[in-house]
Amino acid sequence: MFKQIRTARIGVTEEDVIFDEIADILETADKLAGDFRTQHVRTDIQQKVYDLIMTSEIPDGQVLHLLLYGSIGCLDADTHIPYVIKKHNKIINRKGGTIKKLFYRFNRIKEKDGRVPLLDPQVEFYLTSSTPEGILLSNRIVGVYSSGFKECLKLEVEDGKFIIATADHKFFTPNGYVPLSQLQVGSIIYCHRNRKKRDKKIHKNRKYLFVKHHPIAGIKVIENKYVYHRLLRSRAVVEADMNGLSYDEYIDRLNSNHLEGLIFLPRELEVHHIDGNTMNDDISNLAILTKAEHTKLHTSDKNSPQHSKFRVVPLKIKSISSVGIRETYDIEMAAPYNNFVANGFIAHNSGKTWCALSYLTEVILDYPGACILGARRTYNEIEDAMFSTFERFLSQYNIPYRTNRKYTTITLNNGSLIRMRSADKVATSKSDKADYLGGTEYSGAVLDEADEIPEEFARTVAGRMRQNVGVNKKVIFYICNPPSKDHWLYRWFFEEHNPDDPKSKYR
Description:
3 domains; alpha+beta; 507 residues; nine-stranded antiparallel β-sheet; Endonuclease - Pi-scei, Chain A, domain 1
């Protein structure tokens, strides 16, 4: 799967990106880079990409060309998406709509009928996702993409509902997420049909014990003559640890009224069970919180699987048929629940572009003044998709930036620059000067939907990886579906390297 010298290709099969938000707006280049590395946890595929780049044997000054390919799957433009729009965590719109409509609204693009989308930058879009156990919950949308016109199939289940998607789009089944092309009539697929969870209510039992003496614990009187103190075992475990005693030694001290020198947990403090199991009183599972902190911790995440009301329903596939070429789109959800409900089906989402951005972001943060290139085939694709993709990735970590949509650039506070250019406006010449690319030199690049970009444009970009800001390993990412054998990407990445071919220097 990997070529270690000059070129490499990675088949993307899982894109579970884990992103934790940075708490404060970062102001210096060093703090930007340090906090991004701390908060950005690489997934398996991202780690493979990073390790490949770090261990590649390309000489200094040469470029590593890295192909990220694989099934991302797409849905028909008319697919219904039950999205919800929130502002300051309050719902302002829950109507939902087609995935095409969501694409325009999410990316703040003026629609062809002239209607102006919701431009308020403070609104967020949410959609239902499923846990691996089939529990349904609300999840944040992080990207909506136009995928062009593609061959599609119609998947219909036993209750008559259907969805139209590309053959490589994955759906939730008892065997995990399986591409539509591998599903068969009679197979089971999971759907959302508003079925409520039937789990029995879990009673959180707590272990109590009775001791003869304790200055804070509640009093229990038995038969009007025996007085005991009722103490939570978890508090006893914490207090024993506070006093440097074993649990048994501490209980003996309480029962023998040897309280001199003992420290007791104040009444206003409570003991929290970290793993949620209130019977697990191991000291490593216990944390001391104020009552307010404890209450907030247990009520802040109303969207946790424990609070969810619904779960998936297994249904049999009734038919799978071809419906020809359709306009398609795709959605990317916040990790760890990388899936979403569409037409009542649980569909997996993609993330190859974010995989490339995670590495390139490290470059522009680690090397102030670095310039990277983002390329799509047309200028409209830059405006409609790529620009917002970069913005949302940077915003994910509160990384300060300035935008210039006229020149399609994004500038960071440390002087690094993201320049976006379209392939159809670039014309190469014998002097290796390209209109629209100007004389800019780069430290990295990402060619999105690379299978739609001309080979000469890719060669021109490769010749511009000459910026000297300290980046020793310059990487160009080519993101696409698996290329056909007659495509230049296949020739570059899958055919054997020919050292006598002068064009191989670009590989």
